[in-house]
Specification:
This protein has two domains: 172 residues, Rossmann fold (3-Layer(aba) Sandwich); 92 residues, Orthogonal Bundle (Helicase, Ruva Protein, domain 3), CATH 1.10.8. It is 45% helix and 15% strand. It is an alpha/beta fold. β3 and β4 form a beta hairpin. It starts with a helix and ends in a 5-residue tail after the last helix. The longest helix has 18 residues. α1 crosses α2, α11 packs parallel to α13 and α13 runs antiparallel to α15. It is built from 15 helices and eleven strands.
Length: 319
């Protein structure tokens, strides 16, 4: 499978997803980057900006299964992974699989469940394996978690531990649509062109089969990234550990994520080589959820985005 095939699939996937998701082009691209690098994404946005619809549409476009879990304080780990139930007819235990046995899993409002329940996803996200009653059960090779968080409601929530946040390749922030996009949405409401209606009517076509995604992912390894750029991105990640305003910087997993994200970013742009702009584009999504600022700087109003921008300005771009 050639690199041209990868570029074509990415272009078609963006086009088909754009039929349903109005605007949000950068969000669609970042979601595709997470999928095609075999990683997971944390989506943050206020209610109603189409977080669930985005993942459902991507599942349709890429020919994958979709499942959704609404995280609540009373959700138990077995509600996610499944459990063994005794079958009286067969006189044996049978596995009742939970919603985690899917390709694209939407973990809706993941921070509303306690840590014990959140941790049920840790092994699945890292190893694509679920352990139930000491037996390991493999998950589909395309298993991808999209976890959503509401940025304005923190009462009664359980912040994700750093170990779990680090397993998300990037953080996708979904903003409210601008006036033109919201006007288009309003005009389509209660018509055959409404986003939900389009998705249900079969207008959105699959551009690839689920079994082909693995081969497409391998093509990302052929996207060229010069040694100078690898050194540049390593310096960016290491600078987060030394910045005066950062309490906890990014770890080596962030370095790997930035390399994969930059290659996917280049492929989406139709190139077979990485540029410094690809690294700059992916720096904030990869680093934002991994950095913890010192309290005194947070009180002054400093944001992670500003810290990342400062780091990018301080490090010389290789020629």
């Amino acid at each position: 499978m050639s690199t041209d095939r990868l570029k074509d699939v990415l272009t078609q996937a963006r086009r088909e997803t754009g039929k349903v998701i109005i605007g949000q082009d950068p969000v669609i691209e970042k979601a595709l980057i997470a999928i095609f690098t075999g990683n997971h994404a944390l989506i943050e946005g206020v209610p109603g900006v189409a977080k669930t619809l985005l993942v459902r549409t991507l599942a349709r476009v890429l020919g994958c299964d979709f499942a959704r879990i609404q995280f609540t304080p009373d959700l138990m780990p077995a509600d996610i992974t499944g459990t063994n139930v005794f079958n009286l007819q067969r006189n044996e235990f049978s596995l009742i699989k939970g919603p985690v046995f899917t390709s694209f899993l939407l973990a809706d409002e993941i921070n509303r469940a306690p840590a014990k329940t959140q941790s049920a996803l840790l092994q699945a996200m890292q190893e694509r394996v679920v352990t139930i009653d000491r037996d390991n059960h493999p998950l589909p090779p395309n298993f991808t978690v999209f976890a959503t968080q509401n940025p304005i409601e923190y009462e009664g929530t359980y912040p994700l531990p750093e170990a779990q946040k680090d397993r998300f390749m990037l953080k996708i922030t979904m903003q409210a649509p601008d006036r033109a996009e919201e006007l288009t949405l309003a005009q389509r409401t209660m018509t055959p062109e409404a986003p939900e209606t389009l998705l249900a009517s079969g207008v959105v076509q699959a551009v690839v089969q689920a079994q082909d995604l693995q081969a497409l992912r391998q093509e990302l390894g052929t996207v060229l990234i010069r040694d100078e750029l690898i050194g540049y991105l390593v310096d960016i990640v290491r600078a987060t550990r030394q910045h005066e305003s950062v309490l906890v910087g990014a770890g080596p997993r962030a370095t790997q994520s930035l390399i994969m994200g930059a290659r996917a970013c280049a492929a989406i742009a139709g190139r077979d080589f990485v540029t410094p702009d690809d690294l700059k584009t992916m720096a904030l999504p990869v680093l934002e959820h991994r950095l913890i600022l010192r309290p005194e700087f947070e009180i002054e109003g400093l944001t992670v985005a500003e810290v990342v921008q400062q780091i990018l300005q301080q490090i010389a771009v290789p020629r």
